[in-house]
Write a structure and sequence with these properties.
Layout (H helix, E strand, L loop, with lengths): L3 E6 L3 H12 L4 E4 L11 E4 L2 E4 L6 E3 L2 H8 L12 E4 L2 E4 L4 H8 L4 H15 L7 H9 L1 H16 L29 E3 L5 H9 L3 E3 L8 H5 L2 E6 L3 H4 L9 E11 L9 E4 L8 E4 L11 E10 L8 E2 L3 H16 L3 E3 L11 H15 L3
Parallel strand pairs: 1-2, 1-10, 2-9, 6-12, 10-16
Antiparallel strand pairs: 3-4, 5-8, 6-7, 11-14, 11-15, 12-13, 13-14
Helix pairs in contact: 1-11, 4-5, 5-6
The structure holds dihydroflavine-adenine dinucleotide.
Amino acid sequence: NKEYDYLIVGSGLFGSVFAHEANKRGKKCLVIDKREHAGGNVYCEKTEGINVHKYGPHVFHTNDENIWNYVNSFVSFNHFTCNTLANYKGDLYNLPFNMNTFYQLWESITPDEAKEKIRSQIAELDLKTPANLEEQAISLVGTDVYEKLIKGYTEKQWGRPATELPAFIIKRLPVRFNFDNNYFNDKYQGIPVGGYNKLIEGLLGTIETRLNIDYFENREELNALADQIVFTGKIDQFYNYQFGQLEYRSLRFEQETLNTDNYQGNAIINYTEREVPYTRVIEHKHFEFGTQPNTVITREYPQEWTQEKEPYYPINNTQNNQVFQKYQDLAVKETGVIFGGRLAEYRYYDMHQIIGSALAKVAAHFND
Ligand code: FDA
């Protein structure tokens, strides 16, 4: 018998939930992470007394009462609701598209007026089958919303003109004909009081966690330590890229401390014009209603992904999905290794989905 029952590669939400649940069942776990901190992409760093979301803004939301109760058993959540704005050439618009946005765009007072405006813009174009993302978006919301609030942002995000992006990226666009600015429709929403690190600390508790350790640099040694492995890193790397690399879109964050207590009056403001190189500005203190004398902001720039850069968004096109399927076929045959999390499953997951998927894998694994 080896020293540990489980070696958990990656201390993000998936690894932390799995470790917590295995530990609760009397199993001995060792969690490792190649970063210098635990928590994966939900990790926050304190600067000026403010929890800075180092890997992009994170707002917890779910409709699942069990998952909401689960996270609240480790940390309580505040009443933050995500209300995002768009800045287009110096004018502000509420998001997601709702009556406030339509009033700002066209001074539409009633839902009927706004609907008529959108309908006439769509009709004018007479698009039968949208051939690309641009045509798809216009066929859903008309030209004004598209030109001012979607086009530039999407082109920055993907690094390509909207006419060269496939239509399927946008299946539907949420349009509301009421004055509700709440970004999410979910029943539960908030930010952990004291930040996401509290959630991770609650999950990991006293479980042994070693940082600054890359699994692939110590593979044999680490494998020898535990009976089973929970792997939350990149699945293509696990298999030495034998079928090729899975592609991602990356991000670059530029952080700045400002000598003012309130820079933009909101946690997230999107910049939707193509000419501004970043897609959004995050003012972190607003997630926790902070009253610190200074403020910390982050400008988020999308960028091409290369092997040295953080993989943020999987590019789930046909080519990549086919490659992933080959790795997946090997993974299901693997004994003693459980794959989970966004990198091993090559899929975008929200936090509540990751927790749900970790709890489901735990239940299946332990037969409970
Ligand atoms: P995660 O990436 O967090 O953890 C994996 C860990 O494994 C990392 O710590 C990594 O260092 C480690 N690791 C990888 N390879 C390793 C190796 N070889 N050796 C050792 N360690 C290794 N969700 C939501 O609900 N609301 C939101 O507002 C947002 N916002 C958001 C913004 C942005 C920009 C992104 C990219 C994502 C979001 N999300 C989100 C999604 C959220 O970040 C996501 O669901 C979870 O962080 C995923 O947790 P995982 O454990 O799967 O991966």
